[in-house]
Design goal:
177 residues; alpha+beta
Length: 177
């Protein structure tokens, strides 16, 4: 199987399985989910972790008035680890596919394929934003999914390729984007 075909297969896996994977995360009775982040890393460029952003934690973060507030609020690493899951939890073959993909691209094509992996996460997040997530999780009215990575720059528009305009407007009105 070629690199592009493998990447497309992982994209379809994500579109189908992210909804199932988030159900594996145990929420407290009072938890509301304000976002789902799809994190890509150097070692897992297509999808490393799926993280639920919990409103009560976000509210605490807002009160802290961090100097880089938007970066801080959208940094999925600031959420407790118990709100994270890997897609391999529901689809064990995903990790094998991703390892094979990384092996196939090697160092020489890394930069080009990092962009392709980001594009996949953008597309998946954008498409999954159209679902009614309230049937799956207790979500806030400003709930979104987005592609996440270490250098995410919310202030310079990095959420825009993941989130439909109507949802971005809501986030901006609330001072969250």
């Amino acid at each position: 199987m070629g690199k592009d075909q493998l990447l497309e297969e992982m994209k379809q896996d994500m579109l189908r399985e992210v909804q199932i994977a988030v159900k594996e995360i145990k929420l407290n009775e009072s938890d509301e989910v304000c976002y789902i982040s799809l994190l890509g890393t150097d070692y897992e460029p297509v999808l490393g972790l799926i993280t639920l952003g919990i409103k009560s934690y976000r509210d605490k973060m807002i009160k802290e008035e961090h100097p880089q507030a938007l970066w801080y609020l959208w940094n999925s690493g600031e959420m407790p680890v118990e709100y994270q899951v890997g897609l391999e939890k529901v689809l064990p073959s995903f990790i094998e596919k991703q390892e094979k993909f990384v092996e196939l691209i090697g160092d020489s094509e890394w930069e080009d394929y990092w962009k392709a992996c980001q594009d996949v996460r953008f597309e998946v997040a954008y498409q999954l934003n159209s679902l009614d997530w309230s049937r799956i999780l207790p979500v806030t009215t400003d709930f979104v999914l987005y592609s996440d990575w270490e250098e995410l720059d919310v202030e310079n528009g990095d959420l825009e390729r993941s989130i439909p305009k109507e949802k971005l407007i809501i986030l901006k009105e609330l001072g969250l984007a």
